[in-house]
Structures are given as structure tokens and as C-alpha cells.
Amino acid sequence: MGGYVVRRLVQMVPVFIGATLLIFLMVNVMGDPVAGLCGDRQCDPATAAQLRREFGLDKPVWQQYLTYMGNLFTGDFGTAFNGQEVTELMSTAFPVTIRLTIVAIVFQVVIGISLGVVTGLRRGRPVDTGVLLLTLVVISVPTFVTGLLLQLLLGVEWGWIRPSVSPDAPFGELIVPGLVLASVSLAYVTRLTRTSIAENRTSDYVRTAVAKGLPRRRVVTRHLLRNSLIPVVTFIGADIGFLMGGAIVTERIFNIHGVGYQLYQGILRQNTQTVVGFVTVLVLVFLLCNLVVDLLYAVLDPRIRYA
Amino acid sequence: MRGATHARWAACAMAVALATTACGGGGDTTGAGGAVLSSSWTDPQNPLEPANTNEVQGGKVLNMIFRGLKQYDPRTGEAEDVLAERIETTDSRNYTITVKDGWTFSNGEKVTARSFVDAWNYGASLKNNQKNAYFFGYIAGYDQVHPEQGEQSAATMSGLKVVDERTFTVALSQKFSSFPDTLGYNAFVPLPRAFFDDHAAWLSKPVGNGPYTVESYTKGSEMQLAKWGGYPGEDAARNDGVTLKVYTDNNTAYTDLMAGNLDLVDDVPAQQLKNVRGDLGDRYLNTPAGIIQTLSFPHYDKEWNKAGSVKVRQGLSRAIDRDQITRTIFQGTRTPATDWTSPVLGAEGGYKAGLCGQWCEYDAAAAKKLISEGGGLPGGQVKITYNADTGSHKLWVDAVCNSINNALDNDRACVGNPIGTFADFRSKSTTQKLSGPFRAGWQMDYPLPQNFLQPLYYTNASSNDGKWSNEEFDKLIDRANAETDVAKAVQTFQQAEEVVRDNMASIPLWYQNGSAGWSDRLSNVALNPFSVPVYNEIKVG
Fold it and tell me: Which residues 162-191 of A have a C-beta within 8 angstroms of B?
């Protein structure tokens, strides 16, 4: 097990370097960021040249990348154009987005899996058909439609929530945004669980468990569900990274100042340091999540062993 | 909005129950002081230094926490003395400025002549990377502290001298009679010693001499400003404070206003313009601002700088139905332009309605004729370049192209050429990489006709992206700047503007308005000519 983890961690290094290099190049291709700093007028050449020098933009790209990576290992993510350290931006943005992601994942796990189990056990019944239809609707409606609709209904028409989230972004205010963010994945989790449960219900080990006279509850939770969760865990694990980076739409609608907001602004202002820094961390999160998922397989299915 | 108030409490209760996190930040607007209003904001692009802030959002804050020698009247746009007791000159070149007695910064430090001189020297100095440095370009010795190339050879400008505690002299490198009127711009405000001594601390909580003080500043999300009780000026705040909240999307800010969570929105999203009257009734304002939108041309490109090019540009101008576009796309928040300045200058200040004459009037037949006389469109097609990330530029560029295509009976005469980001758009247009007309927006820095003409059309001027150059125009501008009589100066500026018209250096499209919507808690809301709300005059409750 230990050896496996080490091997996986070593494998991450080239993936990490490749991903950051790609992002670095992509942001660079977008052009000269200094021109955008002076509004609708031209930066005076002397100031522009000095800014370029200070941000290292006058050097060739490969050199910029090497300097950046060198600084990265000393924990220096660079400075954004508004004079804030990128690490400072991260320290305010990531907690917010992590909270939002937790809310979304809780929704996925609690609602998605329960609905999946219920429909999987009652395949073909009205409950099953109803939930299936519902998930189809959720999957086909884009997130921004759900988001704006809920914001308008709950926030303005009925006045149940604040339409925007305050800067502190406590869990309470993140419930509706979290639900919106989770909605599509939630529908997928429901469908995945349902299929998996329905398949495994007829398998030998479940029949054995029932024949042993185990209580139905124990059969479902310990034997049936545990084995059926493998595809679902894979999905949720991959989804964590996706939710953290892909929350741009939801964060914009509800004015949440998280990772999506910083990335969006970073891209608009062509702020290489911000974009590369945040994406680097997201890449790490993604890699780690995948590792955890792989390790979880062993916990869920005792037949799987890593060596 | 009773329902909304309940909602806030419900949300707070929920938050407390779930995470034992109190409802901080925005929840406080109805708390202490009572008369504190909340207003929408976006994150300023540059650090909040006076000479480094060149956009409205940062300017908003500077406007609240600083007062300079002069200030522009929110209604007339006229420059009025604030900290200036006297600004004297005999030759429009050497000025003696006396600062009023009794002014202090909110930390107790006295505002003296040195506060100004130090601030201006800081702003001009190349090593400080101040993006508005060129504002000090008229002061003698600027080229030593801010050379075009290489290292600066002096730390301070030779044209600035402190005479005594309240007096300093300014020597300009050329005659500039309206120099005193430019002093209302944010770059010219005084700075306290704290700014230089502990710069980082000052940036995280700026200290100034205006009607408000910064209470707390969370970068990227919120700034709380409180009324400064000891403010010595006449325009003290009529409310207890302002909370600026950062919104990523102005639609969300508008929704928050509807739900009663926000008091003031100073940028009504284009999508909501249709409903705004119904939603807000008379709590909506739409007034002219000092912003003009034009189409600039690549005069550096031979194709646009031929014998017949003027006619082609005039033809294009006449092919644009400004009336219809401003009515249908902008819902009246833009006014068709008939000159190259802005109505906020007023007739005496240099605005001349109808200066463009027939060349700005829509006439499809005339347009067609002019363009064919001028030798047709270069390459048979014009591509209007714009940035697609902000504003509703795509909408109007497409409309302008439609209008041109219809007028010329040619579906391929005009197409839009979107560029992904503003920064990329700017870098392409400032480095002369565009081969067709491109969008140009100009927001004035101070309400003078000079500001609408010189930076944009003078040979090699800072914002002359199209590299238009005309000797007659340059001469007239120099003459107007040297003219001491205001009326005569304005007249000369208008002559220069006529040169722009006769060459159709750029096509004026429309004047942009500023808009604001507010909750029923507020009254006496107004926008100044820079489309920034006049916060100190707003009454709450």
C-alpha cells in the first residue's frame, strides 16, 4: 500500500509540470497584459516598460516559466496586478470555495445516493419513473438557468434567502448556491447509484446475505450499497476538482468571492500570476482527489489490493 | 421592502444555526449609525494610489476620501476652489498656489504646500509606476523624473517649489491657461506623510482629507467608509457612511437592489434597462456623463490614408443610423453624438451641438455616393474591432454593421471583429496592429474641451491610437492652450475640432449616460459628470 502511494505521488510530478506549463503558455498566448492596465488610453512607454520588467514579462517565456516554478517551490506565487500577493488571494478565495464544495458534495451524497438507493430498489415503480424524469430535467437545464431562477424566486419574489452571498460566506448562505452547483452532478449520482444497485441486487452475495436471514437494512447498507458505491465514488472524486474550478457560473450569479471569481477576473485582466497560481492548486487538488478515490476502492471492495 | 428584511433575518438565523458564524459584513448596513448606505462596487484594477487610479471604481473611493485644490461641481462640472485659496499667474506658465488654512488629514496631520508637492513628485516619478504620471507632464522637469527611456536623472520635478507652509509655485514647460482647471483631477490630491512612511499600511487602509474615512477595507470584497466628523470642508457627508460591496456581475447587484439588500447601483445592466422604469419608478437616474464613444481609424495604414479616405470615412459615418441604435439597443442611455466632446461641458465650456453637421446624419444614398467617390471600402469590407469581454460592445457593433450593410446594400460591407479580452484589444490597438476601424471610448479626466481633443488627436498624443496627425490641428491646440481668455480658448478648441470633422479623423457615435438606481431609503441621489454618485450628498432614511 505504502509503495503504491509513493509510486502514485511520483507519477504526479510530470503531470503537474505538464499541466502548469500548458496553462502558463495558454495565458501567455493571450497577449500583453500591461496594455489593459491603463484603461482606454495608452500606458506611457516608460511606465509600461518598467511594469513589464517588474513582472518579468520582458524575458522569454521559458525563462519566465522557470523563474515562476522556482519561486513556486519556495511558496512564492507572485503578485497580482493590483499589488496583492497571490497567496493572499488564495487564502481568502479557497476557504469560501471549499465551503461551497462541501455543501455541494453533501447534497450529492445525501440526496443523490438516497434517491439512487430508493429508485434502485423499486425499479420500474412510479417512484423510480418520477425520479428518473426529474433527473432528466435537471441534467438538461443549464446551471445558470437554475441559478438565476432560484435566485429570483427565493431571493426576490419570496424573500427566503439573500440573493447574494456576503463576503464571509458562512455555510448558511451557501445552501442554495451549493444546491445549484450540485444539481447536475446530483442527478448523475442518483442515476449511477440506481443502476449499480439494480444490477447488484440480483447478484449471488446479496442472495446469500438474504438467505442467511440478515435484516433487510443490513443487507442493503453493508452488502448491497457498499459494493455498488465504487462507480459513484469515482464520479464524486473526480467531481470535487470539477466543482472547485468549475464554480465560475454559480459564483458569479450569487456573487461569491471564491476561486471561480478570482480565476474569472484573472483571465479578464490577463493576470498570469493569479491564473497560473490558482490552476496549479486546482491541479494538485484534482490529483490528490484521484489518489484518494483509488485508495477508497480498496476500502469499499476487499477484493482490491494495492501493492 | 418588508419581506426582504425578514429574509435577511431568516438567512442570518439559518447561518447562525448552521455554522455559528455571525452575519457579518453586509448585514451591518442597517446596524450602527443607521444612516449608512450600501453601494455596488467592483474591485479596483490598480492599487488605490491617487496617481495610479485611472478607472471609475477606484476613483469612486478617492472621491470620498480626498479633496484637492479644486473640485468639479457635480451639476455644472465647473472647477471650484476647495483647498485652493488662490491660484495666480501672469503668463499662463508660472503659477503661485496658496493652500487654505485649517485643513488637516483625518489622522490630524496638517495639509500644507509640502503635502501637494510631495504627492505630485511621487506621482510623476518613474520608479513608482504610477499610471497617471503623464498628468504631471506639463510641469517643468517632468522629463527628468519620467524620461521616455532609460533611468530617471532627478528625484523631484524642478518646476515645483515650496515657498512657505501654505504656498508653492508651479512652473510649466509650456503655456497652459486651463492648468488650474485640471487640478480637480484625482491625481492632484495632497498626500499625508503616512503614505510615504508606511506605504503598505496606507494601502491597506488609506488616509485622506475628504468627507469620509476608511473604516475597514477587505480587498476584493468590501470597503466600509464612515463620515469624518472633523471634516473642515463645506461639503460634509449628509449620511453616516457608505459600504462599498464588490459585485462580480452587475446583474447580481441589481437583483440585490430589488431584494432590498443593496441601496445603490451605479451601473444598471443593459439587460435590465427595459424593466428599470417599472422596477424602480423615479428611483432611477439617467444623466449625461463625460463619455463619448467613437470609431477610430488606423491612419498609419496606407489603405486608410489615401486621397479618398476622408470621403470613405464620411460615408461610413453617414451610413450609421445613430438614432435607431441608441433607441433600440441602449434604450435611450446613449445620445447620438453631433460633435467630438460631450454635453456635460455645456455650451460655454466648449460643447457645440451640431458641429458635425450633415456628416453625422444618417443618409443611405449620400453614404453610398461618398464611399464610391472615395474609391470604395479598403479591401471591399470594413472590420470593426472591439473587445467582447465587457460592456455590450458586440450588440452595438453588430447594429452599426447592419446599418452600414443596409445603407450600402451590401451584406458583406461590414463585420464585427471581436477580441477576447480588453487587455488584448488594448495591446493590439496601441501597437498599431489593427487594419480597420476599432471602437474607442473616451472618458474625460476633467471637463475641458482640451481633454477631448489633445490626448486623442494631437500628433503622437498618449491616446492617439490611430496615429492621426495634422499640422493645422496641432497648431490650433497649441494656440488654444496658450490663450488666457477662456471664451477665446474655447473658440480655438472648436476650430481645432472642425479640423477633426473636416478630416473625419474619427467617427463620433454617441454620448454615454451614467445611470443609477436606488432603494427607497435614499434620497437626493445624483451622479457627477464622471458618472460617479455624489455620495456625500445622499440622504438616508
Answer: 162-164, 166-168, 170-173, 175
Lowest mean pLDDT among A204-208, B120-124, B234-238, B499-503: A204-208
In chain B, % of residues over pLDDT 90: 57
Residue B3 pLDDT > 60:
no
User: pLDDT digit string (tens) for A53-69?
Assistant: 887 788 888 888 888 88
Do B441 and B293 form a contact (C-beta atoms < 8 A)?
yes
Q: Tell me if A163 and B219 make a contact (CB, 8 A cut-off).
A: no
Residue B17 has pLDDT above 50, yes or no: no
The band of B398, judged by pLDDT with boundaries at 50, 70 and 90, is: very high
- Give the largest Cα separation in chain A, rounded: 84
Q: How far is CA B31 from CA B24, B26, B34, B536, in A?
A: 11, 10, 6, 19
Residues of A in contact with B27 (CB under 8 A): 166
Does A52 contact chain B (CB < 8 Å)?
A: no
A47 contact B CB<8A: yes
Measured distance CA(A305)–CA(A1) in Å, rounded? 8
**Chain B interface mutation, best of A81, A157, A255, A270, highest count of B Cβ atoms under 10 Å:** A255
Q: To 10 degrees, the CA torsion angle through B385, B388, B389, B393?
A: 90
Residues of B in contact with A268 (CB under 8 A): 389-390, 421-423
pLDDT at A218: 87
Residues 6+ apart with CB under 8 A from A115: A131, A190, A193, A194
pLDDT in tens, B329-352: 888 889 999 999 999 888 888 899
Q: Is A220 on the interface with B (CB under 8 A)?
A: no
Chain A hits for B389, CB-CB cut-off 8 Å, are 268
The DSSP string of B341-369 is S-GGGHHHHT--TTTTGGGGS--HHHHHH
pLDDT number for residue B33:
55
Phi, psi (5° rounding) for residue B81? -65, 135
Which residues of B are less than 8 Å from A152 in CB distance? Answer: 255
Residue B123 φ then ψ, to 5°: -65, -35
From the list B260, B269, B266, B232, the residue with the least C-alpha distance to B535 is B266
Give the pLDDT confidence of A203-220 residue by residue, as tens digits: 888 888 889 888 888 888
Q: Is pTM, for the whole model, over 0.80?
A: yes
Residues in chain B closer than 8 A to A270 (CB atoms): 421, 423-424
Does the structure show a pLDDT above 50 at B24? no
Which residues touch A165 (CB under 8 Å, ≥6 apart)?
A173, A174, A177, A254, A255, A256
Residue B536 CB: number of other CB atoms within 10 A? 20
Distances (CA, A) of A129 to A119, A132, A219: 8, 5, 24
In whole angstroms, what is the distance from residue B349 CA to residue B37 CA?
34
* Chain A residue with Cα closest to B388: A268
B462, amino acid identity: S
**Nearest residue in chain A measured CA to CA from B439:** A40
Residue B540 pLDDT grade (very low, low, confident, very high; cuts 50, 70, 90): very high
- From B83's Cα to the closest Cα of chain A, the distance in A is 28
Provide the edge-to-edge strand list for the sheet that holds B160-164: B84-89, B94-99, B167-171, B160-164
Q: Which grid coordinates belong to B399?
A: 447594429
pLDDT reported for residue A3: 82
pLDDT at residue number B10: 42
**Cα dihedral sign for B72, B73, B79, B85?**
negative
- A42 interaction partners in chain B (CB closer than 8 Å): 430, 462-463, 465
Q: What is the CA radius of gyration of chain A?
A: 24
Contact B248 A34 (CB under 8 A): no
- For B22, the closest chain A residue by CA position comes to A170
